[in-house]
Specification:
With 491 residues, the protein is α/β, with parallel strands linked by helices. Among the domains are: 52 residues; 167 residues, P-loop containing nucleotide triphosphate hydrolases (Rossmann fold). 40% of the residues lie in helices and 19% in strands. Strands 5-6-7-3-8-9 form a 6-stranded mixed sheet, with helices on both faces. Strands 2-1-4 form a 3-stranded antiparallel sheet, with no helix packed on it. Helix 2 crosses helix 6, helix 5 crosses helix 6 and helix 12 packs parallel to helix 14. The longest helix is centred in the middle third of the chain and has 36 residues. The protein is flat and about 110 Å long. The structure holds adenosine-5'-triphosphate (ATP) and magnesium ion (MG). Adenosine-5'-triphosphate binds next to helix 1 and helix 14.
């Protein structure tokens, strides 16, 4: 259905793909995996035509309808959540409006010929409308929104009143409503809570009949949906015929085999070279030596893939804080949105967070976890009560939306420098390198970074300072498996 063949793509000196190929087949669900910055999102953008390739071909059936959910949400405003969700199928919506207009027109008396012509057009329009699922469009849109945690009470709220994370859900609902033949999903679970993830999983498995190409760092989700796994790494694309766990096992097997053949080849080469060296000076063996040299030149050397680079860092020794880290006294928060409907998120919270405690904040969709953490981090004023920091507490706050406060125009280096104004250039370069922005990468502008690279940068700016209280809101979203492991160990 969609074929990328022998593609080559390069940004400056960074080669993303060289001679890579990928196929999307009807109804097949494929997971797209690989380290941060390998080029997964780039593949999506190549398929949708947002980015071009330097070489190679891309073929896609003309009529193939593609739905693309990207890692960044575009701007949305001026519509209700429901209208926004339906707007994706705008031709169908427009058709519906035309049908309504024709119905009004029919109520007005007219001559027979005009009426016949109108009826004919009306019939055609109705048929197409039905064919495209126009009659249940609204119901479908409602199902998607509700499944993703936006219930009937919120259908008619203006989109701009939703927070970034919730806008992402509307964007996702919008794409599901299209019911495309090919669904491209870039990290769809990042903005969802458990219930919505389960809903999406069931929907993709039971309702959706098209092809899926999807990235996700959620292994369980991935395993339950995909039947093929495509890895993007080392400038290449490799497809494995199984789910994520199969891929991990199979990749290890292939790696071992490659190591073994590499070792055998090295031994063979060493022997040959040894022979050549020994007999090179003997005239009697000249022909033999020459032919062996020729043979050696022709042998294609087995290349071992480079080890995946991982971030490495150690926390700075932070100053010791008092034993009482945050005292909570009758804390409450009520959001008053512009349309007036006040919403109490939590109230009556009192207690003490003590030094060296590690606390998990859990709760369903919209329970107020992020709001609570924002109040603790001093990002948001509580409605009543206080959250008071103890003596010597140095707070660091990370949220998935911390990425939004990065300045797109600054480079990686400048971003780090801004939080460590007194550090010297060498220290900042080292810190950048520890978070895998090596050499030229540190001079990259932030708006060019991949999702995971942005998270990494935010973590770098956060963890560089000597902190003794970390408030982390979903810190692992967008990070690849290895980076997650390392963050976990460091914590
Ligand atoms: N216009 C550009 N100029 C220079 N480099 C770019 C540009 N666009 C993307 N890149 C780089 O290309 C690489 C691949 O980016 P891409 O977004 O495809 O990665 P990804 O595999 O989706 O990563 P992640 O898992 O973090 O989402 C990144 O290193 C990114 O910084
Ligand atoms: Mg990406």
């Amino acid at each position: 259905m969609i074929h990328l063949t022998n593609i080559h793509k390069q940004h400056g000196s960074q080669i993303l793909f060289s001679g890579a190929s990928l196929q999307i087949l009807p109804g097949v669900r494929t997971g797209l995996v690989g380290p941060n910055g390998a080029g997964k999102s780039t593949i999506f953008r190549i398929i949708t035509g947002e980015e071009s390739v330097d070489d190679g071909t891309i073929s896609c059936g003309k009529k193939t309808v593609i739905g693309y959910f990207s890692q960044d949400v575009g701007e949305m405003a001026g519509r209700s959540a429901l209208a926004e969700t339906m707007s994706a199928v705008f031709q169908v919506v427009k058709l519906g409006e035309e049908i309504a207009k024709m119905e009004t027109a029919m109520a007005v008396p007219m001559d027979d010929d005009s009426l016949t012509a109108l009826l004919e057009r009306y019939g055609d329009a109705q048929e197409e409308f039905e064919h495209r699922g126009g009659y249940d469009l609204e119901t479908r849109a409602q199902t998607m929104l509700t499944g993703l945690g936006i219930g009937p009470d919120d259908y008619h709220r203006p989109v701009e009143s939703f927070s970034g994370g919730w806008k992402m859900r509307i964007a996702l609902a919008k794409i599901l409503v299209i019911n495309p033949e090919v669904l491209l999903l870039d990290e769809p679970t990042n903005h969802l809570d458990m219930e919505s993830i389960l809903w999406l999983e069931t929907w993709l498995k039971d309702e959706f009949k098209g092809a899926v190409l999807m990235t996700s760092h959620d292994r369980i989700f991935m395993n339950s949906i995909v039947s093929r796994t495509t890895e993007v790494a080392n400038q290449n694309i490799t497809t494995y015929s199984g789910d994520y766990d199969f891929y991990l096992k199979e990749r290890e097997i292939r790696r071992q085999q490659l190591l073994a053949s590499h070792r055998r080849q090295q031994e063979m080469l060493a022997k040959e070279e040894d022979f050549i060296a020994r007999f090179a000076a003997r005239v009697s063996h000249a022909a033999q030596v020459q032919s062996r040299i020729k043979k050696l030149e022709k042998i294609e050397r087995i290349q071992l893939p480079p080890e995946q680079k991982t971030i490495h860092f150690e926390f700075n020794e932070p100053p010791r804080s008092g034993d009482n880290v945050i005292g909570l006294d009758n804390l409450s928060k009520t959001w008053v949105p512009e349309d007036g409907q006040a919403k109490e998120v939590f109230s009556g919270i009192s207690g003490m967070i003590r030094r060296q405690e590690k606390i998990a904040v859990v709760g369903v969709n919209g329970a107020g976890k992020s709001t609570f953490l924002k109040v603790l981090a001093g990002q948001v004023e509580p409605t009543t009560g206080t959250a008071s920091l103890g003596a010597g507490v140095e707070v660091g706050y990370f949220s998935q939306h911390s990425m939004d406060i990065l300045h797109g125009g600054l480079s990686v280096f400048e971003t780090v420098q801004n939080v460590l104004p007194t550090a010297n250039i060498g220290t900042i370069r080292n810190l950048c390198a520890a978070f895998l922005f090596q050499g030229d990468d540190a001079d990259k502008k932030v708006n060019l970074l991949s999702g995971g690279e942005k998270s990494r940068l935010v973590l770098a700016t956060l963890l560089a300072r000597p902190l003794n209280l970390l408030i982390l809101d979903e810190p692992t979203n967008h990070l690849d498996m290895q980076s997650r492991e390392i963050l976990l160990q460091a914590l």
